[in-house]
Amino acid sequence: QLQLVESGGGLVHPGGALTLSCAASEFLDFYSIGWFRQAPGKEREGVSCISSSGTYTNYLDSVKGRFTGSRDNAKNTVYLQINSLKPEDTAVYYCAAAFWCSDADTSYDYWGQGTQVTVSS
Q1: Of 60, 5, 46, which Cα lies nearest the Cα of 28?
Q2: 14: which DSSP letter?
Q3: Alpha carbon of 34 to those of 52, 60, 87, 91, 102: distances in Å?
Q4: Residue 103's pLDDT band (boundaries 50, 70, 90)?
């Protein structure tokens, strides 16, 4: 069974940057990878998705221009570069795998355990 492990979260000041990684236990070539986040007291929301080939990406409107998804299938790893961090970006970030990108978290079959991103001065 595919296993995903996120890393790269941390505490950063507003305006800072982080790169989140999502490492897979096996080949990711056939999977699209979505990034989701959940802030305390809020529902989980999708922030980005990258297709299996990496040729298609989409982003939540509030993160467009600040978040960039990429992947290295040779390393079975997907990345989310987060720039210009804002306090409202504070959340646990999860990566998840599906055959196609979807806004619905129910479309994703495999999930990582999450990595905490905290933006605070």
Answers
A1: 5
A2: T
A3: 10, 11, 22, 15, 8
A4: confident
